[in-house]
Design goal:
It is a single chain. The protein is an alpha/beta fold. The protein is globular and about 60 Å long. It is built from 14 helices and ten strands. A ten-stranded parallel sheet has the order 3-5-6-7-8-9-10-1-2-4.
């Protein structure tokens, strides 16, 4: 049986290189991460600071695949070749971003209905890039028929893999994933396929693994933030002691990392508060604590309340109950 490979999903504003490195140090379980997308820019000059999230020196703890968001082949080629020159052998093209500000401009999932444009894009890009290419996509933008028009067209292209999230862009992350449609996708493509979407528990993974025996790589997104022990439980089957303590250490590592690089305490506070949308999910009866944490105005006050929560108030749910809590929010 081929070895299971787990990928960390790209989540804009969350899974940057500081998060990925801290996650690798404290939890592990992932083979690699796909980085949050970099948008192409017009012109030929790219500064290192523009791609700092994927600079090799910032990614020593977890292997990473850079992801590009673009609808313009020429700009994509320039950025992709810059990334190959940094030492990457593959980049990923984002055809999955569901957010209207992206999709309405015919980028991300908003490009999926336009098979002819995607074909023309690949015709231009493939011969001119200096490495391999993978694609992350959804079933479609507004309807799940887009992918079934697209897959036969892109099958002849030398793509390293296709990552499929079986929802439409219009769904964003709501409603059930369409596993029947994903199964139909496997039947009409010869490319290596990675599954992405709603792997929330070990039982979720087992059901998917048993159903899709052709798939050997799996991508986990939001649920690795809510339950950072999930990738390790999937790959090793072992549970981890002292979870609350380990989660506190992870939080503190993140805080220190962002405090070093972000400009001013308010920026750091906003960054950390954004994580608590997911950090809070594993814990029982924590609404009052979360309200106190997210209302903190100064870093000292924030850290005091976070430490109080971890050391005296935090009580973990069972892993299977974390999804139920998220569904109710």
């Amino acid at each position: 049986m081929p070895r299971i490979r787990l990928y960390m999903a790209p989540m804009k504003g969350l899974t940057d290189h500081l998060f990925r490195s801290a996650f690798a140090d404290h939890f592990g379980g992932f083979d690699l991460a796909v980085a949050p997308f970099i948008t192409t820019k017009q012109g030929h000059r790219i500064k290192r600071n523009y791609v700092k999230d994927v600079l090799p020196e910032n990614n020593t703890r977890m292997p990473v695949i850079p992801q590009i968001l673009s609808k313009t082949a020429g700009d994509f080629i320039i950025l992709a070749n810059y990334l190959y020159d940094l030492g990457y052998d593959t980049v990923n093209w984002n055809l999955g971003c569901p957010y209207p500000m992206v999709a309405n401009k015919k980028r991300g999932s908003g490009m999926l209905p336009y098979t002819d444009r995607i074909q023309a894009f690949l015709d231009r890009v493939i011969p001119e890039i200096n490495g391999s290419l993978s694609i992350k996509m959804r079933l479609g933008w507004k309807e799940n028929i887009d992918i079934f028009k697209l897959l036969p067209v892109i099958d002849p292209y030398p793509l390293s893999q296709i990552i499929i999230h079986p929802r439409t862009g219009l769904q964003r992350y709501e409603g059930p994933v369409d596993l029947d449609a994903f199964e139909d996708c496997l039947a009409v493509t010869g490319h290596t396929v990675v599954y992405n979407g709603d792997i929330r528990t070990v039982d979720d993974f087992r059901r998917l693994y048993q159903r899709f025996d052709r798939v050997h790589a799996w991508m986990i997104g939001r649920w690795c933030i809510a339950d950072p022990f999930l990738p390790g439980r999937i790959t090793t089957g072992a549970d981890i002691p002292d979870k609350i303590y380990r989660m506190q250490l992870f939080h503190d590592t993140l805080f220190e990392a962002y405090n070093r690089v972000l400009d001013g305490p308010s920026h750091v506070m906003n960054k950390m508060k954004g994580f608590w949308r997911y950090f809070s999910l594993p814990f029982e009866d924590c609404k009052k604590s979360m309200k106190n944490i997210t209302k903190s105005r100064l870093p000292e006050q924030y850290l005091e309340r976070v430490n109080l929560f971890f050391e005296t108030e935090a009580k973990l749910r069972k892993p299977a109950d974390i999804h139920a809590q998220r569904t109710r929010q």
